[in-house]
Amino acid sequence: MEILMSILAGILFATGLYNLMQKQILRIVIGTGLISHGAHLFILTMGKLKRGAPPILDEGVGNYVDPLPQALILTSIVISFGVTSFLLALSYRTYVLNKTDNMEMLRGNENDQ
Amino acid sequence: MIYAILGPLIISFLIPFFYKWKHKIHTGWILLPVPFVIFLYFLQFVGSEFSPIRQSYPWIPSLNIVFDLHLDGLSLLFSLLISGIGTLVLLYSIYYLDQSEKLAHFYIYLMIFMSAMLGVVLSDNVFVLYTFWEFTSLSSFLLIGYWHHRERSRYGALKSMLITVFGGLSLLGGVILLTTTAGTASIQEMIDQKDVIINSSYFPLILVFIFLGAFTKSAQFPFHIWLPDAMEAPTPVSAYLHSATMVKAGLYLIARLSPILAGEPWFFIAVSGIGMVTLCWGSFMAVRQTDLKGILAFSTISQLGMIMTMLGFGTKAAVFAAVFHILNHATFKGSLFMVAGIVDHETGTRDIRKLGGLMTLMPVSATLALFATFSMAGVPLPLLNGFYSKELFFSSSLELSTSGAALMNTLALVMPYLAVLGSIFTFVYSMYFFSGTFRGNLQADVLPKKPHEAPWGMLISPIVLVSGVILIGLFPNMVNEPLLAKTAEAVYGEAVQKEIYFWHGFETPFYMSMAVVGLGTLLAFTQKRWARVYQVIPGKWSFNVLYDLIVSGIYRVSETVTESYMNGSLRRYIRLILLAMLIAGFGFMMTTDGFMFSNADVAPISLTEVLIAVTMAVAAFATIYTSNRIAAILILGVVGYGLSLLFVIYRAPDLALTQLIVETVTVALFLLAFYHLPELRKIDDDKKERGINVIVAGLFGLLMAAVGISAHSSKWFEPISDYFLETSKTLGGGKNVVNVILVDMRGLDTLFEITVLGIAALAIYGLIKIRRTRE
Fold it and tell me: Name one Pfam family in it (chain A) (predicted).
């Protein structure tokens, strides 16, 4: 199962990155969402899957799944949620100010001026 | 001795305070005693019973950098030149620079320079020497750019800075290699380690680095190009830095290290070869110049080349002639620069085509120039010191041994001929300089000012220098025994006794001198006829063109390189970052044999999970193809909810809960944002762009999958989670291990995650609420 999950994480990364390399700002936000999903799945897979009961201590249970990756992912979910919502607000603001959501038009460096 | 070095530096801090009274008294008068006292201090050492003095002050002893001062004959000669000519130049500058100039700047730079130059010649520690060496480059840069409102001054300053700092950094490389090879940073101790240095495998590199440093500083071919452009500096600066002192720092370095290096074949080939080329090229080019200071600049280049050649010979006679000529050149070239400055000051131009016939109007200057130019030309008159050193140069070039390698033999054979050739042109430009300025007809109508003799104050310094020319010319042994013998001893390594005679009898050097005078006179009179030769050599070719090409080429190339990847497109940057990670990732996996595919120890596959996984994969792909924004957000939601289902299956209840909530809120946020944002649409890429994106993204997915599988397949060590499971209840007091980890065992993570959320909330609020129109 871990191999399958690794492949799924790979697919999530690939599609997320493809979206990240698009021109429209919203696709970039979608891409980051996909990438963070991929990363979370990746971390979970690395901690081995289905090796026991959920990590809630109970009488008579000898085997639990690894709790540490779950704690890490929980932190990560919250952070990526914060970042995603910030990105959304930023893209809204960018669109309002620049009247475009095409990243290829939102460019320039000091040599262009 | 340390006060002599640091004195000018300390006083330069006080100059701004003196400068306040500039309307009452010229700042130069207050500073005049400084170099004079230093000169007197060093003068007391002159004498036949002088023996080297050492002083040592700790600076950074742990790095072997000690403020070691070593005063021997060579340092003494240079210190006397620096402080003596420094005094004269200061005096001259008082009359040369008007009180309306920025005198404080000028004198601060000059004092820093003086300090630095004394530091160069007195330091025994190579790192201290290097420090002062760069100080001379820096202060020279400031002095050349003194009239910084002129474009040519800035160009000249930048050019000299780039070239001398390039050499200075090479020198740093050289001294580091020298120090590591010899195991000491003291030059005197290195001389004892001579064999170790010469036999080390770094020796060729050391030679190259030291030569680059010395040749750039002393304006040797082909690094001579900065010196003519440095003539944009005020004339006292040209006289001081670019004839008498700074340009001799390279000579000093070669002379200082010649007890270690002399006698090596490559030392002779490089130093004498380059020196000779510089001598001939500089004297040849000097005749072409129309600017008085331009002539003097090329003349300085060629004279430095001559001294360099003699240092390269490394024989007793040559070393003695070299140090003698260092002294002679400083006297006559310093006075010539001052005369050129006087002519410029009194007529308003330095263009030799406009000048002429000034002899009757400026008799004193003309007399001074007469002595100095004839001395420079090496005319055989007993009054002039230039003749002696030139004749010593000829005789030492004849005495070269021809028992070395083939290249050395050839060089040794052609040296006397080249020496004569260079000297002929030296004669020609000396005559050209004198007669172009003082003889011929006065062109009063083209001169910006009505010419008249300079004030006496301005004439004192060149008079003193020319008296030096005559005194040394009349009584050469006056400086021989007490000073030059000691200097030559320091350079050669053992005692050098040399008598200087005016009359050698009818020997080869005398005939060489006669040939120089004869052919030189002929060429000088027919100068107009053969001047066309300059259209062929160098013609359009010059090293300045090369320098400009290199400088502008570096700008162009770096601009092209930067613009080739910094095109402002975000996707390009992402692509480059991903490509770099791909190369690093795959490369690392390949080289360390990291790919491992074992399906031992995997969890069993169940149909539900496969179905969820397939659904998520399909949904992920669908985000790329959809062009409907509601569909896009729902599809993204499918991936998120699928993930939370997986969390459920993989026994992570807290994760599943959080993921569900977060996904719901995110979807809501997306919907809210979409309400304000335009329709999702396909902005079409051409096929190539899309192909690259597919390949890069696909490969990266592949890499991540491979890493995941390999990481799972390899065993490194046991997880630490057993500790959490065992102590969650006993230490943390909770049954939910994930929550205990979050708030108890790794509570800091949670604290900052809360901070992140808070910052994000504030930032979003700011983005939406705060509106400032763009300026």
Answer: Oxidored_q2
What is the topology classification, in CATH, of domain A2-49+66-108?
Answer: Helix Hairpins (1.10.287)
- For residue B33, is it within any domain? no
Write the pLDDT tens digit of every residue in B111-133: 999 999 999 999 999 999 999 99
Domain match, B772 and B709 both = no
Q: Structural domain tally of chain B?
A: 3
Residues B749-761 have a mean pLDDT of 93
Instruction: Give yes or no for A35 touching B (CB within 8 A).
Output: no
Nearest CA in chain B to A29: B670
**Dist CA B488 CA B396 (whole Å):** 14
The token pair at B260 is: 């270690």
Q: Which residue range(s) make up the domain with B653?
A: 597-716
- Any domain includes B618: yes
Q: ipTM value of the model?
A: 0.92
Residues B482 and B368 in one domain: yes
Q: Do residues B402 and B499 share a domain?
A: yes
Give the whole-angstrom CA distance, residue A112 versus residue B745. 52
- Residue B617 predicted with pLDDT over 70: yes
φ/ψ bin of A99: left (φ > 0), alpha (ψ from -120 to 50), beta (otherwise): left
Q: Does B636 touch chain A (CB under 8 A)?
A: yes
Q: Is residue B505 part of a domain?
A: yes
Categorize the per-residue pLDDT at B685 as very low, low, confident or very high, splitting at 50, 70 and 90: low
Residues B331 and B442 in one domain: yes
Whether chain A has a CB inside 8 Å of the CB on B611: the answer is: no
A53 has a chain B CB within 8 A of its CB: yes
Subunit contact A78:B570, Cβ cutoff 8 A: no
> Minimal CA–CA distance to B76: which of B58, B101, B57, B53?
B53
Alpha carbon distance A19, B152 (integer Å): 55
- Shared domain for B513 and B657, answered yes or no, is no
Query: Are both B287 and B432 inside the same structural domain?
Result: yes
Cα B549 to the center of its chain, rounded Å: 18
Q: Which two tokens stand for residue A14?
A: 């690939």
For residue A20, give both structure tokens.
């990240």
Q: What is the CA radius of gyration of chain B?
A: 38
Read off the pTM. Answer: 0.81
Which of B535, B552, B572 lies at the terminal end of a domain, its last residue? B535
Query: CB–CB of A63/A51 below 8 Å?
Result: yes
Which residue in A9, A91, A109 is closest to B677 by CB distance? A91
Read off the pLDDT of each residue in B28-54 and give the average, rounded to a whole number: 85
C-alpha distances out from residue B16 to B27, B34, B36, B421, B755, Å: 9, 16, 21, 50, 54
Whether residue B107 is contained in a domain is answered as no
